[in-house]
Amino acid sequence: MDKIKLNIDGKEVEADKGMNVLEAARQAGIEIPSLCYLRHINEIGSCRVCLVEVEIKGTKTLQASCVYPATEGLVVYTSSPRVRRVRRTMVELLLSDHHRECTTCIRNLNCELQNIADNLGIRNIKFTGEMKSLPVQNKNSFIVRDYNKCIKCRRCEAICSKVQEVNVYSAINRAYDTSLPPPSCRICPRWPA
Ligand code: FES
C-alpha cells in the first residue's frame, strides 16, 4: 500500500494513499467526531460534524473530513477555535429539530449524538423554530422507528442497500423536509412495515 505524509494538528502523520482525512487522523490517534460516516458504506458528507480546517493555497477552508482526500503535504486542523465553533453550530442545528427526551430515551448514555453534544459542551439550544411531531413506528417487532429523532444521516438507507442488499429505505424530499418513509418491504419477511 502506497503511503503519504500529511500534517494534522501540527503533527506529521502517515496515511495510506486513498484514505480520507478522517481515516488518516483516526489512524494517527486523532479523534474527529462523525455521525453520518460509515467506512465504505455511507460516505455522503451530510451531517458536517466532522468539519476540519484544511490549508489550501495559504487559506484555511472548512471541509468535511470524511469525504476530503488525504493527500501528500496536506495541512489539517481538527480542533481549532473556528472548527469547534462551527461544529458546535452544526450539532445545535441537528438538535434544534430533535425530540430531546434523553433521560427517557432507550439510547440514553449510549447515543453518538448525545456524546458529541456533551463533548462540545452543548447545554442549551439557541435555535428555535418548527419541530416535527410524527407518530412513532412501532408495529415492527424488530425495529422501532422514531422519526422525531432522525438526523437524516441516511446510515439506515446505506446499510439496507449495501449490507442487507434489500433496498427498501429511500429518502424523499429535500433539506428540512427530507425523510425516510417507513418501508413496506415485501422482500424480506423479517422486516415488515
Ligand atoms: S461524518 Fe462527515 S459529514 Fe457526517
Residue share in helix: 10-25%
> How many strands appear in the DSSP assignment?
5
Question: Radius of gyration, rounded?
Answer: 19 Å
| Low-confidence runs | 186-193
Strand order of the largest sheet: 2-1-5-3-4
Structural category is alpha+beta
Characterize the largest beta sheet: strand count, sense, and whether it forms a barrel.
Answer: 5 strands, mixed
Helix-strand pattern, N to C? EEHEEEHHH
Bound molecules: FE2/S2 (inorganic) cluster
Q: Per the principal axes of the C-alpha atoms, what is the gross shape?
A: globular
Q: What is the CATH topology descriptor of the largest domain?
A: Ubiquitin-like (UB roll)
Broad CATH class of the largest domain: Alpha Beta
N/C terminus separation: 44 Å
Q: How many structural domains are formed by the residues?
A: 2
For the record, the CATH architecture of the largest domain stands as Roll
Total DSSP helices: 4
What is the strand and helix layout of this fold?
Elements: E1 3-8, E2 11-16, H1 21-27, E3 51-56, E4 59-64, E5 75-77, H2 81-96, H3 112-119, H4 155-163
Parallel strand pairs: 1-5
Antiparallel strand pairs: 1-2, 3-4, 3-5
The protein binds FE2/S2 (inorganic) cluster.
Residues 34-37, 45-50, 64, 66 line the site of FE2/S2 (inorganic) cluster.
